[in-house]
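In the design runs reported in the main text, the only information available to the sequence generator was the tokenized backbone. The following block is the verbatim input for one such run; it is reproduced so that readers can re-run the procedure and compare outputs position by position.
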């Protein structure tokens, strides 16, 4: 785990309706816990840096909405207040999360990881990642330029969060 004390769990896409609700794109696999009524989240940036620790948002209610969640926060009473939250990332302390399993990794740990083929050849490093409709996709910077790699079992042999190495199946020819 890096120096970050906070995990990115969601992104506020936009305000919805007139009662201060926001649409949250989920970046967690435990939304029912993190966005439960009474739960607290902090606002920050995509790298897990908190903007203002003194201002936690307290979840009033949440419900599924278009692949994400519709969330009402206490004190966000109208659309104007909700609009101010647009584009903010929502964070929670790692201490409050279930640690990832051996074959899992936190999204913000991906940038900077080494990418190798299953034959041991180093092909580049993860520059960033994208949450695309077809799933998580890594942007790998190679000496020849950027290569997009789907982060799926058919493509990824293994991910090691300790050595910070992602192994890609060479048979697919993604880096040729």
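Verbatim output:
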């Amino acid at each position: 785990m890096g120096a970050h004390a906070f995990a990115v769990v969601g992104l506020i896409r936009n305000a919805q309706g007139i009662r201060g609700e926001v649409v949250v794109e989920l970046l967690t696999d435990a939304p029912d816990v993190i966005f439960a009524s009474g739960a607290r989240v902090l606002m920050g940036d995509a790298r897990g840096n908190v903007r203002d620790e003194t201002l936690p948002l307290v979840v009033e209610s949440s419900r599924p909405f278009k692949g994400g969640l519709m969330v009402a926060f206490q004190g966000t009473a109208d659309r104007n207040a909700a609009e101010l939250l647009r584009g903010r990332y929502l964070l929670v302390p790692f201490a409050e999360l279930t640690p990832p399993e051996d074959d899992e990794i936190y999204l913000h740990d991906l940038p900077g990881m080494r990418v190798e083929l299953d034959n041991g050849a180093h092909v580049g490093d993860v520059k960033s990642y994208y949450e695309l409709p077809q799933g998580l996709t890594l942007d790998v910077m190679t000496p020849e330029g950027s290569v997009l790699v789907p982060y799926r079992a058919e493509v990824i042999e293994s991910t090691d969060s300790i050595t910070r190495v992602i192994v890609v199946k060479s048979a697919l020819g993604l880096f040729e």
